[in-house]
Design a protein that fits this description.
Chain lengths: 393, 82
């Protein structure tokens, strides 16, 4: 039996749980040292999780966004940084799967992602664009069959660990800032000169350092569709849904710890309901809200994928933005409730109820693509887009 | 109608190029139309032609070129066929 067949004999969630067990065992060290979650990513590779989204005819498993979000959630419960690395990889894979089909180089590359369990990184941020990934300053230079790009990429998560970087730029030297393309550069086709060091409050294992990226590759590695379409049709929904999957995982693990604490207290004092129980009920309510919101987004994305007009519509973009805002804000409330329940045992590191890492990791959610920017974008769209006021629509 | 659309595009499109240089079928996003400017343009069009764009027309395609905008506006201003 080959490795994939062995891995497939187990369900996707079982494989994710096995990788998550490795991630959990290393989570505190990854956090304390601010290092890449090497063991967890190796475990993801061993469980053949990096290629699940690739279509089956290219050697993958044609996993749906819902299935991938579930893996994000399982990994996020164990180690948020590991979950986020997996999510970011899958968001890049979605660009290839949705927009690389029919392009010979990209199809062959997808086959290699599945076969060799390659890890994809993303370079959409650039110094000087003010955080708006739909603008680029740098432009790709196409010279015959070769393309060259230099980019002041202020953030490339796990850049030095990745097998390829998917990077945005203007389509030509004379293009407008929003006329962008995305190109796959493989390891060996670029150099990275470190400019920014990632030493942060949380999500310390994603190693989101900054670099000057200099690459040269065959021009056929440029994705054939404009980045504007990639951003609207696959990246927006995949980012907000998969990130939310990881964030839900952080919050649900915090909840599980708080619940163990309350149940232990209840056993010690039979006949009385412990003081934390009421807060736990409140946290359960909030956790369900986040979960329902993500599930609704998955349903909407599923419906929109069958209809390109819907996928590019403002209504859909507003809905996806709202999912991101809601999950990123609500998980902080949930984890804070859990901290109030576990008290000093939650505040302390190294107890079964420790929540410091959860709280610090969760704080990245409203900043990675700032909620203010997303709300600003939504508020512009709402000037013309009328809210669907029905329940089922 | 095309003249009016061109006039509004020049005023609200915030394009780095002059609207006169663009053909009716030229890709406006390639020409630098941002999502913010496209919304400002939609609002101006709604006001000028006294229409409201329904959800089905609020997508990239409807505003991808001057010709596409003309078709979108025309679909809302033409007398419905009885």
């Amino acid at each position: 039996m080959n490795e994939l067949a062995k891995a497939k004999a187990l369900s996707l969630t079982e494989r994710a749980r096995r990788a998550a067990a490795v991630a959990a065992a290393n989570a505190d060290d990854v956090d304390a040292a601010g290092r890449f979650p090497r063991e967890a990513v190796d475990a993801m590779k061993a469980e053949r999780l990096l290629g699940i989204q690739i279509p089956a005819y290219l050697g993958g498993e044609s996993a749906t966004t819902a299935e991938i979000a579930e893996v994000c959630c399982i990994l996020g419960q164990a180690c948020a940084a590991s979950g986020m690395v997996f999510a970011m990889h899958q968001i890049k894979a979605s660009s290839l799967v949705s927009h690389g089909e029919g392009a010979p180089w990209h199809e062959a590359y997808m086959r290699r992602i599945a076969a060799d369990q390659l890890l994809l990184a993303s370079a959409t941020t650039e110094g000087g664009i003010g955080g708006n990934l739909r603008n680029s300053i740098c432009a790709i230079e196409v010279d015959g069959d070769t393309c060259r790009l230099t980019k002041d990429a202020t953030v490339i998560s796990y850049a030095t660990e990745a097998d390829a970087i998917l990077i945005t730029s203007r389509a030509r030297a004379d293009s407008a800032p929003s006329d962008q393309v995305m190109t796959v550069f493989e390891k060996g086709q670029y150099t990275l000169e470190k400019t920014h060091h990632w030493d942060t409050l949380g999500m310390r294992g994603t190693r989101s350092d900054g670099f000057i990226f200099k690459g040269e590759a065959p021009a056929e590695q440029i994705l054939p569709k404009p980045f504007a379409e990639i951003a609207a049709q696959s990246m927006l929904a995949n980012s907000h849904i998969l990130w939310s999957g990881v964030w839900f995982g952080i919050a649900s693990d915090a909840f599980a710890r708080a619940q163990v604490f309350v149940r232990a207290a209840a056993r010690k004092t039979p006949g009385t309901v412990p003081p934390g129980a009421l807060r736990l009920a409140e946290a359960s309510n909030l956790l369900q809200l986040v979960k329902s919101n993500i599930l609704a987004a998955l349903q909407q994305y599923d419906a929109a994928q069958k209809d390109e007009t819907k996928l590019s519509s403002m209504g859909f973009a507003v809905a996806m933005n709202n999912v991101k805002i809601a999950s990123s804000q609500t998980i902080l409330e949930i984890i804070n409730h859990c901290l109030l329940i576990a008290g000093i045992m939650g505040y302390k590191n190294g107890t079964p109820y420790s929540l410091g890492r959860h709280l610090r990791d969760a704080h990245s959610a409203q900043l990675m693509i700032s909620n203010d920017r997303i709300l600003g974008n939504t508020s512009t769209m709402l000037l013309v887009n009328k809210q669907d006021t029905s329940l089922l629509g | 109608m095309t003249t009016k659309i061109r006039e509004l595009l020049a005023k609200h499109g915030a394009l780095p190029v002059s609207v006169e240089t663009l053909a009716d079928t030229a890709d406006l996003y390639e020409a630098g139309l941002s999502s913010f400017a496209s919304v400002q343009l939609m609002l101006a069009l709604e006001d000028a032609f006294d229409v409201e764009f329904p959800e089905t027309l609020l997508n990239r395609k409807s505003f991808a070129s001057i010709a596409a905008i003309r078709d979108a506006v025309a679909s809302l201003t033409e007398e419905p066929v009885a």
